[in-house]
Design a protein that fits this description.
By secondary structure, the protein is α/β, with parallel strands linked by helices. It has 21 helices and 18 strands. It folds into four domains: 3-54, no CATH class; 68-97 and 208-373, 3-Layer(aba) Sandwich (Rossmann fold); 122-191, Rossmann fold (3-Layer(aba) Sandwich), CATH 3.40.50.1100; 378-556, Biosynthetic Threonine Deaminase, domain 3.
Length: 557
């Protein structure tokens, strides 16, 4: 008898039941082996991620930022593009009213909190930087009370900027961590909403509007976007939007080498706290990547690179040369990373975007930026060279230098046999030229030490070469000279000085002006003073006798 007649059902149902039973048995076997379990988890994970991407995309598209922010231009950098044979664009967030992108996230976060809690008493945050101004401005626009807790070491210029928006400023603690702890206490005590600088999804969504603008402003193909990373809020906003709408665009995180909290987290596979951070690029000087930002960006970022202080300084100069704008160190981090990435990967013909995140920098830092930018571009070599202590040795050394531009030249008499010179040499062909020049000096039997990567030399020793020569120099005259600044001018000057009098002190630094300024000491016997002065007059070079100068008498004689 047919089986379906025994069961009193049709043959089609029997086949269906048989197939269903076989599938169930297969599933049970697979589940016990772990295969289905893993597939189900993978499917569930991807589904959740897709939903999260869609939700964040909606948060960016509905973010409220343009009450205070402007859509900043995406500028094409002609000089950089030509130099690196790529199309390089710069997103100009330095043109916001507070000279930083931070007002986007701050306003969106405060707006969203206030929308849900209209009875909100006010907002509070801890910051010594751009976020503080963003919160103060946003609160003022929404007619809310704002309290900003800042470390006691915060410069007055930043305190004044925050106060100008009507915020209450409280100076507390020696560092950011102390200020933040006190800020959280006040928030709880006074019922204020704490606005986190980066670890808040509304803050991230506000920053993500930058990515939305980039896509609208450059609808054609973009190969990579380089983003500075501190706490991760800017990267999270950009990554969340870009990977949802243009997943093929690479996102490259860039951090200072001495504040690389995201780089270290990726390397360790978890968030880590840096023991110390460099503060040159203070806008991204964060000890630990945010918890929420890290969970969001760790799988969205394509690469992480770090840059040195010198490379950041070079990028500040590059930005100025292309746009005539001066960005803060954190604002130049992404362009520094872009340049390093292009050189390391050998990229050509790509479309690349960097983000100038801000321009809040004290004017007095420009001196440091100017001096370090040439080293960052490998356009200057700092060398310590040992030469014989005898008349004419300076001239022979300068003849070897030839037409190369001398950027710095420091020397002080030490003993009767050896002279040590600290020299800066301008390079036109980078490291290859430096290596070639050092080899040339060594072939002439000069002892040479490359100081270009020596932090002590760059920060301190270059300004300390000199001092008192002791009792060995008793017949010294000190003169200051000024001559037209052009290649070979220093050599021509030394050729005129000749070998008659020994040079016991020499200081020269190229400051980028039309005239070179030199301070020189000569060993001249008293009987030769009149002859020596007549010789100087014959040079037709402006000069001044500084032998009685108090600075010389106190510190150099």
């Amino acid at each position: 008898m047919k089986i379906w007649r025994i069961l009193a059902i049709g043959p089609t149902k029997v086949i269906a039941i048989t197939l269903f039973t076989a599938v169930c048995i297969t599933l049970v076997i697979a589940w016990s082996a772990g295969t289905i379990h893993n597939l189900w988890l993978d499917y569930l994970t991807e589904t959740i991620r897709a939903m999260a991407k869609q939700q964040f995309l909606e948060k960016v598209l509905t973010a409220r930022v343009y009450d205070v922010a402007r859509e900043t231009p995406l500028d094409y950098l002609e000089r950089i593009s030509s130099r690196f044979d790529n199309k390089v664009w710069l997103k100009r967030e330095d043109l916001q009213s507070i000279y930083s992108f931070k007002l986007r996230g701050a306003f969106n976060a405060i707006y969203q909190v206030h929308r849900i809690h209209p009875e909100l008493a006010g907002v509070i945050t801890a910051s010594a930087g751009n976020h503080a101004q963003g919160v103060a401005l946003a609160a003022s626009k929404l007619h809310l009370k704002a309290t900003i807790v800042m470390p006691t070491s915060t410069p007055n210029i930043k305190v004044s900027a925050v106060k100008s928006f009507g915020a209450k400023v409280i100076l507390h603690g020696d560092n950011f961590d102390a200020a933040k702890d006190y800020c959280l206490e006040l928030a709880k005590k006074e019922g204020l909403a704490f606005i986190h600088p980066f670890d808040d999804f509304n803050v991230m969504a506000g920053q993500g509007t930058i990515a939305h603008e980039i896509i609208r402003q450059h609808p054609d193909n973009i190969d990579a976007i380089f983003v500075p990373v501190g706490g991760g809020g800017l990267m999270a906003g950009i990554a969340g939007f870009i990977k949802a709408v243009k997943p093929d665009v690479k996102l490259i995180a860039v951090e200072p080498a001495d504040a690389a909290c995201f780089y270290e987290a990726i390397k360790a596979g978890r968030r880590v706290t840096l023991k110390e951070v460099g503060i040159f690029a203070d806008g991204v000087a964060v000890r630990q990547i945010g918890k929420k930002t890290y969970s969001m960006i760790r799988d969205l970022v394509d690469d992480v690179i770090t840059v040195s202080t010198d490379q950041i300084c070079a990028a500040i100069k590059d930005t100025f040369e292309d746009t005539r704008a001066i960005c803060e160190p954190a604002g130049a981090v992404s362009l520094a990373g872009l340049k390093k990435y292009v050189e390391s990967k050998g990229l050509k013909g790509r479309t690349l975007v960097a983000i100038n995140s801000g321009a809040n920098m004290n004017f007095d830092r420009l001196r440091h930026v100017s001096e370090r930018s040439e080293l960052g571009e490998e356009r200057e070599a700092l060398l310590a060279v040992q030469i014989p202590e005898q008349p004419g040795s300076f001239k022979r050394f300068c003849q070897i230098i030839g037409k190369r531009q001398i950027t710095e030249f420091n020397y002080r008499y030490a003993d009767d046999s050896i002279a040590r010179v600290f020299a800066g040499i301008q390079l036109t062909h980078g490291i290859a030229e430096k290596i070639e020049f050092i080899a040339l000096l060594k072939s002439k039997n000069y002892l040479v030490v490359d100081m270009s990567d020596n932090e002590v030399a760059k920060l301190h020793a270059r300004y300390m070469v000199g001092g008192h020569p002791g009792a060995s120099v008793t017949n010294e005259l000190l003169f200051r000279f000024q001559f037209p600044e052009k290649p070979g001018a220093l050599l021509n000057f030394l050729m005129k000085v000749g070998k008659r009098w020994n040079i016991s002190l020499f200081h020269y630094r190229n400051h980028g002006s039309n005239f070179g300024r030199i301070l020189m000491g000569f060993q001249v016997d008293k009987a030769d003073h009149e002859t020596f002065r007549a010789f100087l007059s014959s040079l037709d070079i402006p000069h001044w006798d500084e032998t009685e100068n108090s600075a010389y008498q106190l510190f150099l004689k």
